[in-house]
Amino acid sequence: MIVPTTAAKNDPEIVRDPEFKKKEFDRVGIAGVSKGLMKVLGTVRKVSKSDSSVLITGESGTGKELIAKAIHKNSSRSNGPMVVINCGAIPGELLESELFGHEKGAFTGAHRSRIGRFEIADHGTIFLDEIGDMSPELQVKLLRAIQERQFERVGGTTTIEVDIRVISATNKDLPAAILEGLFREDLYYRLNVIPLHILPLRERKEDILVLTDHFQNYLTKRSNGYQVKIFSENSKQALLHYDWPGNIRELENLIERLSVLVENQTIEPHDLPENITNRSPGSTPISVISVFNNEIGFNDAVDQYQRSLIRHALDETGWVKARAAELLQMNRTTLVEKIKKMNIEPESAAPVF
């Protein structure tokens, strides 16, 4: 017997949005201006008008889930649910139950029946994140559910029908996984009807400062009294020349950290983590880049670089000038003179000797 889910029994027009074509495109908080991002959003606009399966690929932290939300939000299913499940975060033996539900007594601990994410997502969208981590055994059952839009709960015999759109995402190389026998080729082609690849942040530098403003604006809405901070030119250059291995998620975390730890309104290079400001040996210093971009003059660049070196040494040594001078390999009296001349003061109540 085939049983439609509770949602499927309702009038589809109540769940679907018949006016979706008249709505403006909703970026659902996706910030950026780079050509790479605009290309992705252009595809999202087209894909949203269909029910085709989409496979989103890209490194961790690039915003794959946000892209999936944009597809759902701009589709005719926007009034229906969007159900997210992280296939890599749930143990394999429990993932089948999470996806398809189970009947009472299906396994040890199954004291009552429960519906799965596929049923919950009826007349909406299901987003399968980290799909590359799913076991080959479960991939077989997933393939059938996607192809036929029907399945049975674990321990059940009743076939359940659903009307869903499937979006999946991974940071893994699925074609390579297929060759290694870790991922089913037929499932890959079923998921990869519309491929969407998101570039890492290091390949779309134009988005870095836009995202910085975006995350600060978000903080003003979330925290009463938060003052948007200004990044000095050297700080901006540091952000632009960093590779961001954690991508957008790393940048977002940095902005929140700076909002808590930096009391001054202007963010200077010494406020940034060392892994961002410490360039690799032989690379061009930030202040040199600024000079050749005609952003600051030679004397200002030298002054800022000296100031950054001195402040870093003082911060590292707890403002013990003798130790800071030793770290900088200069006389203590010379250091004291430079501190006075440059009017360098501790940002907090650090001890001064």
Average of pLDDT: 85
Which parts are unreliable, with pLDDT below 50 for 5 consecutive residues or more?
7-15, 279-283, 348-353
Radius of gyration, rounded?
27 Å
Give the helix level as a range of percent.
Answer: 40-55%
List how many beta strands DSSP finds.
10
Shape: elongated
Distance between the termini: 83 Å
Q: From N to C, what is the helix and strand string? A: EHHHEHEHHEHEEEHHEHEHHEHHHHH
The DSSP helix count reads: 17
Tell me about the largest β-sheet.
5 strands, parallel
Strand content: 5-15%
Structural classification: alpha/beta
Order of neighbouring strands in the sheet with most strands? 3-4-7-2-8
Structure description:
With 353 residues, the chain is an alpha/beta fold. It is built from 17 helices and 10 strands. Strands 3-4-7-2-8 form a 5-stranded parallel sheet. A 3-stranded mixed sheet has the order 1-6-5. Helix 14 runs antiparallel to helix 15 (298-316).
List the helices and strands and how they pair.
Layout: E1 2-4, H1 6-9, H2 12-15, H3 35-47, E2 54-57, H4 64-73, E3 82-86, H5 92-100, H6 117-120, E4 124-129, H7 136-148, E5 150-152, E6 159-161, E7 164-170, H8 174-179, H9 185-191, E8 194-197, H10 206-222, E9 230-231, H11 233-241, H12 247-261, E10 266-267, H13 274-277, H14 286-292, H15 298-316, H16 321-328, H17 332-342
Parallel strand pairs: 1-6, 2-7, 2-8, 3-4, 4-7, 9-10
Antiparallel strand pairs: 5-6
Structural key phrases:
single chain; 353 residues; alpha/beta; 17 helices; disordered C terminus
